Amino acid sequence: MSALFDYRTCPTTGLRVDRNAEKLIKANAVVAVVFLAIGGLFGLLVALTRWPAVHFLPADWFYLALTAHGLDVLLVWIIFFEMAVLYFASAILLNSRLAGPKWAWTGFGLMLVGALITNVAVLQGGSSVMFTSYVPMMAEPHFYLGIILFAVGALIGCGVFFGTLVIAKRDKTYDGSIPLVTFGALTAAIIAVFTIASGAIILIPTLLWSLGLVSHIDPLIYKTIWWAMGHSSQQINVSAHVAVWYAIAAMVFGAKPLSEKVSRTAFLMYILFLQIASAHHMLVEPGFSSEWKIFNTSYAMYLAVVGSMVHGMTVPGSIEAAQRSRGLTKGLFEWLRKAPWANPAFAGMFMSLVFFGFIGGISGVVMGTEQINMIMHNTLYVPGHFHGTVVAGTTLAFMAITYLLVPLIFRRELMMKKLATWQPYVFGIGVAGISVFMMGAGTLGVSRRHWDMTFADAALPFDYPSAAFLMMGLNGIFACMAALGGLMFVVIVVGSVFFGKKLAEDEKPSYPEVPPDSAAVGHYGSSESLRIPGTAFLVGIFFVAFVLYYFVNWKYLSEIWPLS
Amino acid sequence: MALTPPSERIWWRQPIAKIELIWIFVAFTWGVLMFFMMIYWHGAGEQNLSNEAYQIKPKVFAEKAQKMIDEYTVREENGFPVVRPPAGSDVYLIARLWQWWPVLELEKDQSYRLHLSSMDWQHGFSLQPVNINVQVHPGYEIVMTVKPDRAGEYGLICNEFCGIGHHNMVGKIHVVE
Question: Domain B53-176: what homologous superfamily?
Answer without folding.
Answer: Cupredoxins -  blue copper proteins (2.60.40.420)
